[in-house]
């Protein structure tokens, strides 16, 4: 352990020796100050958050991510190319200690820079929030400077209804010439559509079980977050939304008429004490428009409630970003364990591009391969062995990518969504220990097998 810490300390000092840390510190502070100063917000809580929090955190992640990759590739690849690594491995130090020591040193640099940048962002956000109008400051406290968890309806199991309708149509001979899988797919889409649709003159109700948190939220405001799609475009671009919430026969029941746009999320604040005796929140939507409205089952409706403080939520979000940087450092070191600095940097960047290309991988999986598809069916008619192999490969790769991409701390912080300790624990487990550990194991194995004595220094 002493050897590992010594290598980590030397790696950390080398970043200062090459003026990397002071330069990046000034760059990050300048970015988080100059960007909000150069872009004027619209005077609203969400406008302020978008500029001061979302944009600056995005820049911080981009700068530190690229720096981590460059430093990880350079610190090991250049030591190998210059033969200076031989002065270390000839000592009683295991190669895995050298590898992990360099990773630890890089993460110390990241910890320092990330703490500096995010501390400035937090202080600037609090300072500029004081200049908002009182009404917007109230919105900021209730919807953004908080940690809100969410509850939804339990998933609906409509498979029995699908099977029932399939058997009825099969008995009547309506689908005799249709493949069973294709027929079930059509019926399933129709049943799901019926559950999501609210025709003109009808209403849709939700019963959200909040009994587990009823004691903590009973005297606090709740928030509805909803999104719908419309069957016909409205001339005004908006639709009349009538919302009612609370027990049906209670004097506390509230009614609100809103003008809402389709295909966009909308939040509405509910007053406290709307739960019934069992801790259930009853919400109804009445469609008085001429068009049918559709609320997606997956994300069409949810109830948000306050779970914790913004400060602690912010710290957990930054910790998730630190997990991302840990994985990037492992990827850069693994590439540098076998390749020269320029090649390692290129390969590492290519891997990051793959991570952000999950849409392409989804398309390949859905169409059944990478060859040209049938334009009528959208899939490959006769998949070859190569197509099947590519689908299996991209399914496995997409599964690994999704383990990392499931975490979005910037979006959560910008919308006041709670980043729980469980989320942080999953980030550490999936990003650092599972994926990062796998990359580190590969990098250490390559580094252990590499013939360092044959490396030639540059004259």
Secondary structure layout:
Elements: H1 2-17, H2 20-38, H3 45-81, H4 86-89, H5 95-129, H6 134-144, E1 147-151, H7 159-172, H8 180-196, E2 197-198, E3 203-209, H9 214-217, E4 222-226, E5 229-230, E6 238-245, E7 254-261, E8 266-270, E9 280-287, E10 293-294, E11 301-308, H10 310-336, H11 341-355, H12 358-367, H13 385-405, H14 409-414, H15 421-449
Antiparallel strand pairs: 1-11, 2-10, 3-9, 4-8, 4-11, 5-10, 6-7, 6-9
Helix pairs in contact: 1-5, 2-3, 2-5, 3-5, 3-10, 3-11, 5-10, 5-15, 7-8, 10-11, 10-15, 12-13
Summary, kept brief:
The protein folds into 2 domains: 290 residues, no CATH class; 149 residues, Sandwich (Jelly Rolls), CATH 2.60.120. 58% of the residues lie in helices and 13% in strands.
Features of the shown structure:
459 residues; 13% strand; globular; four-stranded antiparallel sheet; alpha+beta; Jelly Rolls
Count of the domains: 2
DSSP strand content = 5-15%
Distance between the termini: 35 Å
Structural class: alpha+beta
The ordered string of helix (H) and strand (E) elements is HHHHHHEHHEEHEEEEEEEEHHHHHH
Shape: globular
Describe this structure in words.
The chain has two domains: 2-145 and 309-454, no CATH class; 159-307, Jelly Rolls, CATH 2.60.120. It contains 15 helices and eleven strands. It has helices at residues 2-17, 20-38, 45-81, 86-89, 95-129, 134-144, 159-172, 180-196, 214-217, 310-336, 341-355, 358-367, 385-405, 409-414, 421-449; strands at residues 147-151, 197-198, 203-209, 222-226, 229-230, 238-245, 254-261, 266-270, 280-287, 293-294, 301-308. Strand 6 (238-245) and strand 7 (254-261) form a beta hairpin. The longest helix has 37 residues, at 45-81. The radius of gyration is 27 Å and the shape is globular.
């Amino acid at each position: 352990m002493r050897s590992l810490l010594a290598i980590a300390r030397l790696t950390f000092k080398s970043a200062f020796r090459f003026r990397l840390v002071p330069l990046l510190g000034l760059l990050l502070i300048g970015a988080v100050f100059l960007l909000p100063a150069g872009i004027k917000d619209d005077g609203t809580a969400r406008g302020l958050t978008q500029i001061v929090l979302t944009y600056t955190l995005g820049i911080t992640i981009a700068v530190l991510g690229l720096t981590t990759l460059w430093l990880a590739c350079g610190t090991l690849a250049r030591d190998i190319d210059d033969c200076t690594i031989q002065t270390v491995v000839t000592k009683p130090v295991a190669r895995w200690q050298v590898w992990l020591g360099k990773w630890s040193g890089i993460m110390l640099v990241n910890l320092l820079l990330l703490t500096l940048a995010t501390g400035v962002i937090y202080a600037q956000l609090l300072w500029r929030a004081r200049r908002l109008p009182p009404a917007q400051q109230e919105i900021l406290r209730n919807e953004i400077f908080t940690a809100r968890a969410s509850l939804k309806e339990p998933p609906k199991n409509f498979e029995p209804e699908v099977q029932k309708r399939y058997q009825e149509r099969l008995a009547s001979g309506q689908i005799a010439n249709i493949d069973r899988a294709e027929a079930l797919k059509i019926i399933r889409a129709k049943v799901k559509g019926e559950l999501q649709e609210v025709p003109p003159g009808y209403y849709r109700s939700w019963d959200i079980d909040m009994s587990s948190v009823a004691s903590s939220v009973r005297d606090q405001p709740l928030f509805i977050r909803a999104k719908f799609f419309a069957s016909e475009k409205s001339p005004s671009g908006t639709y009349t939304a009538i919302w009612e919430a609370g027990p049906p026969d209670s004097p506390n029941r509230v009614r609100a008429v809103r003008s809402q746009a389709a295909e966009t999320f909308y939040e509405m604040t509910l007053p406290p004490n709307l739960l019934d005796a069992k801790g259930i929140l009853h919400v109804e939507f009445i469609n008085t428009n001429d068009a049918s409205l559709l609320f997606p089952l997956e994300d069409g409706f949810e109830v948000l409630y306050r779970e914790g403080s913004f400060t602690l939520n912010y710290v957990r979000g930054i910790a998730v970003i630190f997990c991302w940087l840990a994985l990037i450092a492992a990827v850069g070191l693994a590439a540098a364990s076998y390749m020269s600095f320029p090649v390692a940097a290129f390969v590492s960047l290519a891997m990051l591009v793959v991570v952000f290309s999950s849409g392409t991988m989804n398309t390949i999986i859905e169409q059944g391969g990478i060859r040209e598809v049938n334009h009528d069916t959208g899939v490959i008619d006769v998949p070859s062995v190569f197509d099947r192999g590519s689908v299996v490969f991209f399914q496995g790769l997409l599964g690994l990518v999704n383990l990392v991409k499931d975490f979005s701390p910037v979006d959560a912080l910008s919308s006041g969504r709670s980043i729980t300790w469980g989320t942080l624990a999953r980030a550490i487990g999936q990003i650092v220990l599972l994926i990062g550990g796998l990359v580190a194991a590969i990098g250490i194995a390559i580094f252990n097998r590499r013939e360092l004595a044959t490396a030639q220094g540059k004259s």
